[in-house]
Amino acid sequence: MNQAIRSSWLAAVAMFALIFGAISYVQVIGADELNANPWNQRAILASFCNDRGAIIVAGKPIAESVPGTETCKFQRKYTQPELYAGITGFFSRGYGSTGLELSLQDQLGGNSDQLFLDRMSQMFLGKQPKGASVELTLDPELQKLAYDLIPDGQRGSIVVTNPKTGAILAMVSKPSYDPNLIATHDAAAAKANYAELNQIPGISLNQNVSGPTGNLLAPGSVFKLVDTAAALNSGKYNKDSELPNPSTLPLPGSNAVLPNYAGGNCNVRETADFAFALEQSCNTPFASIALDLGQNAIAEQAKKFGFGEKFGEQLKLGQAVSVFPANLDQAELAQSAVGQRDVKATPMQIGMMTAAIANSGVQMKPNLIKTVRAPDLRVISEAKPEVLRTSTSTSIAAQITQWMTGAVSKGIASGAAVPGVQVAGKTGTAQLGDSGLNNSWFTGFAPANDPQVAVTIVIEGVDVTTGAKLTSPNAKKIFEAVLNK
């Protein structure tokens, strides 16, 4: 009998310890994580009807709380919703939060430690609780221009940055959606709208524009900038090096070959210097470089440009992590060197790589948040430019810039040329299997000698002709818009 009592007592103690531990975890260790969970309905309901802070662009709210009903005093409203949906996300009762509405929940909801005195003041004065407002670095004119440059019904993304500061000037993605349809207080309407929006081809209601709908894409020939930096950094190559440039390169250990780009003039030379290889976007010279240097050299340089890092942590947006794969055989390495195979990147990653080259090899932290202001409008945080890392040396960045200007002035990126301005650029065409379609890229900056703006464009699932029309020429329009301000 004593043994039975002892066993029951031990079981009761163990159960009590388990329950106590779970409660302690929920209340202490896991509280922040649980409160931040976008599907935590209790956290949402607790603040759903509050006067949430505004998200602001150039002094005007793109998301704000407006008067609601007697049962719910405030309703979340999004202005120019499709234009900013990939950034603001939505704040809803039934489907949680996404985008900045989720990542800045404490500030917008008025729950951050920086707003403690404001909460106390509001409570003692009997005022409605109010959150902080958040002003973004976006330029509304550039945001609208970039959005309109992607045709409706087309999947694509554009990222525009200041390479010297890391500030995001425009960041758009299509297809987009109207967050008001999900933020509505009408639960039945929200449910129907959510289901209908999810039927749009290519849509993701959790999208962020660091990568179109969160996807990672093969970067194609824009990855050759990584190869070039790795080659120069190795000491085995210099600006005068002659590279093998066969029309096709047999892939080691296989019966396949890697062809040169058919749309340029690669095949007029059996060897090529870096300038020509980048101007014409030849494949075989860069595959040869990767086979010579080895996987580790290319992977290390990719890492220095930010592959493998979540830039979204700085942007306060979720983001897929760009990848240069490991454990490649020689054939896979050759294909990876031209941005194919399993190399995957987001537009933000390619934009950050390009911005580092523009900024003398120094990569700045990307920044989307300009200021956060308390309800009384005092500034409680303000962004300042910060160095993230050194991606390459000043001399190597300057040399790559010179070659990129050649790609625009006399190469296949000529559509990005701006009269009277030196533009640096690189195109990319990533094949999508045997479909005949591609992901078409452009990345570059201007002016080349004093960069003010870096632009990265990707248009998904298009033929070569369509891709060429929607990338370099559209980059030109963005360059002109910035430089003519």
Short description:
This protein has 485 residues and is α+β, with helices and mostly antiparallel strands. Among the domains are: 35 residues; 253 residues, DD-peptidase/beta-lactamase superfamily (Beta-lactamase, 3-Layer(aba) Sandwich).
Question: What would your notes on this structure say?
Answer:
The chain has 485 residues and is α+β, with helices and mostly antiparallel strands. Among the domains are: 2-36; 214-369 and 387-483, DD-peptidase/beta-lactamase superfamily (Beta-lactamase, 3-Layer(aba) Sandwich). 39% of the residues lie in helices and 18% in strands. It has 20 helices and 17 strands. The chain has helices spanning 2-29, 31-36, 41-47, 81-88, 99-103, 105-108, 116-124, 140-149, 180-183, 187-197, 224-234, 274-279, 284-293, 295-304, 312-315, 330-336, 347-358, 394-409, 464-470, 472-483; strands spanning 55-57, 60-67, 74-78, 133-136, 156-161, 168-174, 243-244, 248-250, 257-259, 271-272, 362-364, 369-373, 379-382, 387-390, 424-431, 438-446, 453-462. It has a six-stranded mixed beta sheet with strand order 3-2-1-4-12-13. A five-stranded antiparallel beta sheet has the order 6-5-17-16-15, with helices on both faces. The chain has a two-stranded antiparallel sheet with strand order 7-10. β16 (438-446) and β17 (453-462) form a beta hairpin. This is Penicillin-binding protein 2.
